[in-house]
Design goal:
Elements (H helix, E strand, L loop, with lengths): L5 E5 L2 E10 L3 H9 L4 H4 L3 E6 L9 E6 L4 E10 L2 E6 L2 E11 L3 E9 L6 H23 L1
Antiparallel strand pairs: 1-2, 2-8, 3-4, 4-5, 5-6, 6-7, 7-8
Helix pairs in contact: 1-3
Length: 143
């Protein structure tokens, strides 16, 4: 279930948070969030990624191709405790967070800068895709 976006205080200040409960454990969701090769699968605005690091870590850099158009540089600012943030074209962009829940579920969240509130719609679609990928991976692992 996707909750309505709301303004919350995050480690990066006030952000619009879009989140969803996922029927997979936190590690499965975190893997989807951090695997740069999978970003085009779940990111509606990401067509391709170039990054030397397959999995996000603090200090990782690369480029994302936005909607089949230009390549834009990115740099990961933070990555710890199931949360990572980045800058795209040197501008603070979305935060990505996972909170473990009971019953092998997790809360996946995007923290959207207030100046980019319109991007919440894109994040909502991304959360649905992330949930499908993580839940499918969990089902495949149990078969």
């Amino acid at each position: 279930m996707v909750a309505l976006p709301r303004v919350e205080r995050t480690p990066d200040g006030r952000r619009l948070v879009v989140d969803r409960v996922v029927g997979a454990d936190a590690e499965a969701v975190w893997t989807v969030f951090t695997d740069t090769e999978r970003w085009p699968e779940w990111g509606p605005s990401v067509s391709a990624v170039r990054c030397d690091d397959r999995f996000v870590e603090r200090g990782a850099t690369g480029e994302v191709q936005v909607a089949g158009g230009p390549w834009i540089p990115f740099a990961v600012d933070t990555c710890e405790n199931y949360r990572w943030t980045w800058r795209v074209a040197r501008i603070p962009a979305t935060g990505h967070a996972v909170t473990p829940l009971a019953d092998n579920r997790a809360l996946a969240a995007f923290e959207v800068p207030l100046y980019a509130a319109g991007y919440a719609i894109v994040c909502r679609r991304a959360l649905s895709r992330i949930a499908s990928i993580a839940e499918r991976a969990t089902e495949d692992a149990t078969e």
